[in-house]
Amino acid sequence: MNKKTIKDIDLKNKKVLVRCDFNVPMDEEKNITDNTRIVAALPTINYLLENNCAIILCSHLGRPKGEVKPEYSLKPIATEISKLLNKEVVMAKDVIGEDAKEKASNLQQGQIMLLENVRYHKEETDNDPEFSKQLASMAEIYVNDAFGAAHRAHSSTAGVAEYLPAVSGFLIEKELEFLGNALNNPERPFVAIMGGAKVSDKIGVIDSLLEKVDTLIIGGGMAYTFFKAQGYEVGNSICEIDKLDLAKQAMEKAKQKGVKLMLPVDTKIGKEFKPDTESKTVDWTEIPEGWEGFDIGEKSIKMFEEEIKKAKTVVWNGPVGLFEFDQFAIGTNSIAKVLSEIEATTIIGGGDSAAAVRKAGLEDKMTHISTGGGASLEFLEGKKLPGIECLQQ
Question: Which of 38, 69, 145, 348 has the highest Cβ tally under 10 A?
Answer without folding.
Answer: 145
